[in-house]
Design a protein that fits this description.
With about 325 residues, the chain is of the alpha+beta class. It folds into three domains: about 100 residues, DNA Primase, Chain A (Alpha-Beta Complex); about 90 residues, DNA primase DNAg catalytic core, N-terminal domain (Alpha-Beta Complex), CATH 3.90.980.10; about 120 residues, Dna Topoisomerase Vi A Subunit, Chain: A, domain 2 (3-Layer(aba) Sandwich). The chain contains twelve helices and 14 strands. Strands 1-2-3-4 form a four-stranded antiparallel sheet. The protein has a four-stranded antiparallel sheet with strand order 7-8-9-10, sandwiched between helices. A four-stranded parallel sheet has the order 12-11-13-14, sandwiched between helices. A hairpin with a 2-residue loop joins strand 8 and strand 9. About 5% of the residues have low confidence.
């Protein structure tokens, strides 16, 4: 059976504020000081409230009482949009009996996909450092140093005769996505990047840093090469993640996690789509500010010999006082 504390910890970061009470960012309205989870010794259960979107003191005329703190079923219905039957099945541990849970498991979560992807990536990494240097030279031309290329396990794939630089996205020890950059010189611009089949668009690239180095500011990029560029030049100063696309990554669990960072710099591409989705991030994160690339993206800046470290440092200096 799932309780409120377990459910909430899947979507937000909680810290202890009293003997029997935890607090953190709200998974729905994203307020950083509103969400509470409390344990009742008398009932032996956890309950929740949010001063904005689930006000326990609000009077409900149709029920003739105050709303009160919510239980696990209330939590799942409020935060995940389930029906009562779906929520009860999930909380009781019978999720498979509902239509909601009969969705097929994403391929990236299956042991078979993990095994096949790991085997393929080992071969791709070996090929990258072979006598055929097409992908390696491309990565170097993009400004990446060899130790970064090795550290993040970039590889060289030839699939159906198409040569590609491949970049695995590995979170919590499992593959979630493999980005592929078509290296043919005549490929149209809009078709250069395609994910390998079976991955997911729900995961941020390099997301593990959000747990491993919680106290650092975060830069949110749009693509993996830009994220690697910033990590290479100033990884000691900031965490960096990539969304995998302008419209991707804006899930409750990522917003809740990023809300815990001291500062979030939104560095999506300097184009219409990047500006549009950057504005959405700024609406959801009070601690976020726009860091618009001076060229198309951070990797283009690295290739153009811009000082990414100075660029990020200046941004941190300018937003520091603003967020105090």
């Amino acid at each position: 059976m799932s309780d409120v504390l377990t459910l909430a910890q899947e979507e937000t970061q909680l810290h202890k504020v009293a003997v029997n009470e935890m607090a953190g960012p709200c998974p729905k309205c994203f307020g950083t000081d509103r969400f509470r989870v409390r344990y009742s010794r008398e009932a032996g259960t956890w309950s929740f409230m949010c001063r904005s979107c689930w006000d326990a003191g609000q009077y409900l005329p149709e029920k003739g009482r105050k709303r009160g703190w919510g239980d696990a079923i209330d939590y799942v219905r409020h935060y995940r949009g389930m029906t009562f039957q779906e929520a009860k099945a999930l909380v009781d541990g019978h999720e498979g009996e509902t239509s909601h849970s009969r969705r097929p498991q994403p391929p990236s979560l299956t042991p078979e996909w993990q095994s096949a992807t790991h085997k393929a990536m080992q071969a791709h990494q070996s090929r990258l450092w072979s006598h055929d240097t097409l992908a390696l030279e491309y990565a170097r031309r993009r400004g990446l140093y060899d130790h970064i290329i090795k550290q993040f396990q970039l590889g060289y794939s030839i699939h159906h005769g198409i040569p590609s630089l491949v970049i695995p996205n590995i979170n919590a020890g499992r593959y979630v996505t493999v980005y592929r950059r078509d290296l043919r010189p005549d490929v149209p611009k809009g078709q250069r990047w395609k994910d390998a089949p079976g991955g997911t668009k729900d995961e941020l690239y390099l997301a593990d840093c959000l747990w491993l180095r919680k106290d650092l500011p975060v830069v949110v990029c749009e693509d993996a090469l830009s994220a690697l560029s910033i990590y290479q030049e100033c990884g000691d100063l900031v965490n960096v993640v990539a969304t995998g696309g302008a419209e991707c990554g804006m899930l409750t669990r990522w917003i809740a996690r990023l809300a815990c960072a001291p500062v979030v710099l939104i560095s999506l591409d300097a184009d219409a789509a990047g500006d549009r989705y950057a504005a959405e991030w700024l609406m959801r994160l009070k601690n976020a500010r726009r860091l618009r690339p001076l060229l198309k993206d951070a990797n283009d800046m690295l290739m153009g010999s811009w000082d990414l470290r100075e660029w990020v440092l200046n941004a941190l200096d300018s937003v520091g006082a603003d967020l105090v």
